[in-house]
Design a protein that fits this description.
The structure is a single chain. This protein is of the alpha+beta class. The chain has a single domain, classed as 3-Layer(aba) Sandwich (Glutaredoxin). It is built from 9 helices and 5 strands; from the N terminus they run H-E-E-H-E-H-H-H-H-H-E-E-H-H. Helix 3 runs antiparallel to helix 4 and helix 5 crosses helix 6. It is globular and about 55 Å long.
Amino acid sequence: MRNLLKLFMLALVMPIAACNAQTDTGSGDFAYRDGVDFQTLPRAVATADPSRVEMAEVYWYGCIHCYRLEPMLEEFVENELPEDVNFVRVPASWHPTMDLHARIYYAGKALGIAEDIHWEVFKAMNEAKNPLASEGAIFKLIGDLGHDEAAFERAFNSFGVNSQVTQAKSKTAAYGIRGTPEIIVNGKYRVSTTMTGTQEKMLDVALALVEREQAMMEAAE
């Protein structure tokens, strides 16, 4: 009977402990504080691959701060982000011009040239001061970069790209994005320089959250 009572009490305690582990957002030995260095989203947003921890870059090609972050972020992803983390880009979209620019990224993905044109689009808008405010201006840039304008135009206006831009708009809203660049960790945490003060610290906080999410995922297996 005593053993049965112990098992019963253990069954009561375990779910409570699990809930505490899942909702821990800054207690214990974690170096950063929720609401100060990062923000827990009111509702988790679905990630592309639930079996892996995700780190999402939310950006806009016309944002000078995103432009300045990009080389640092590329180096971070290559050298510091764990290999099994799913790094994704989410073009911010809350304005028709931003929708137009989000299409550039997704059309590039559809054609397998996203990585080739990504930095070039940043440079065009932030160095050459080309606003890319029309489809014609965008297609000309793609042609100038040595890619097939007609193929890009077809992808740009395709059903698949339309759907991806719609999803990006929904995610931008669900994340509660207030500016760019921002980083979303595993659909749960929002990190921005508004909170961290510097882009370097934003990446440090994001990495700490990624590693904590990985540890929690491993513990749950």
